[in-house]
Amino acid sequence: MSEAPVVLLVGASSRRLERAAYERAARLLCRKGCPPGEALCGSCRRLFAREHPDLLVAAPEARRRVNVPVLEEGGASKETTIPTALVRAIASEASRRPYEGDARAILLLDADRTDPAAQSALLKVLEEPPAAARFLLTAVRLQRLPPTILSRVAIEKIPSASREETAAALVARGVPADEASARAAFASGDADEAAELDLADARATRDALLAAASGLFLGGAPGWALALAEAAEGEDGPATCERLTLLARLLRDAVAAAAGGAVVHEERRADLSRLGAAGTGRLAGAAWEALDLAASLAETTRNARLACEAFALRLLREV
């Protein structure tokens, strides 16, 4: 019970953070001192099977819920945030005594994907966490959590794997080298995340961004600016940030490809080299603007569609 009552795990890979949170929960609930990450005793086996009675898990995706109270909620069928009603239910459940041992482990995965109402509900329980509850939060975008919550957590950074390490891990699992490299280009921080990636969808998104950027910088037609804005807009704010980050990576790749250097998306080297002809300064500046917009969208509730259109039209004006 020496763990801080509230720990926030931060890093670049949501799946890697999720695994780290479960390993930390096992350390809290294990009664026999099993090595980290290993399920040797019955308590650890039940935890990693998501069956331990003192484990509660909430995340934006309903399939990642464990032992949470029954609640009514509305909204779209595909969750992109942790519902406020779920956070309130978890807060209420946290005050119950453990079924086994001395503590309950309460995981809030992707806590950065909560709206202000859910954050307010979470803050209330974090201000005075129940004595027998240990909260484990994960977040990729730390800046999306308010200072009031950050001031009440112990922050730990979980390092990501390198792109080379992720590709090597996939090859070790039997994934062909070319596919492993392609998957690692999109999800470099964790092999599990890369393995579960919808590669066809990721490639389609990348190719749409690359085609629009090439048309804009090499052709200068207004239609390509609108195409780039459409390709950059995701289904929600976090998805749009990811697409803008991918665009920035492609623009940096184009600069590197034009100079004959190493690129992340090797399978599109020829197209990247052609885009590189637009000029190092212009592409590097656009990459910086894409990252700046991604950071801005992560910190505000700006309309993503309008922001992407303004960004693309600004690039058109500079071509």
Brief sketch in words of this structure:
This protein is α/β, with parallel strands linked by helices and 319 residues long.
> What spatial order of strands do you see in the largest sheet?
2-3-4-1-5
CATH superfamily of the largest domain: P-loop containing nucleotide triphosphate hydrolases
Helix content: 40-55%
Note the run of SSEs as H and E: EHHEHEHEHEHHHHHHHHH
Output mean pLDDT: 88
The overall number of domains is: 2
Beta fraction of the residues?
Answer: 5-15%
Low-confidence spans = none
Top keywords for this entry?
about 325 residues, alpha/beta, Rossmann fold, 2 domains, globular
Q: What's the SSE blueprint?
A:
Blueprint: E1 6-10, H1 14-29, H2 42-48, E2 55-58, H3 84-93, E3 104-108, H4 116-127, E4 133-139, H5 147-150, E5 154-157, H6 163-172, H7 177-186, H8 191-196, H9 199-219, H10 222-232, H11 237-258, H12 269-276, H13 280-299, H14 304-318
Parallel strand pairs: 1-4, 1-5, 2-3, 3-4
Structure characterization notes:
By secondary structure, the protein is an alpha/beta fold. It has helices at 14-29, 42-48, 84-93, 116-127, 147-150, 163-172, 177-186, 191-196, 199-219, 222-232, 237-258, 269-276, 280-299, 304-318; strands at residues 6-10, 55-58, 104-108, 133-139, 154-157. Strands 2-3-4-1-5 form a 5-stranded parallel β-sheet, with helices on both faces. Helix 4 (116-127) links the parallel strand 3 (104-108) and strand 4 (133-139). Helix 9 (199-219) runs antiparallel to helix 10. It is globular.
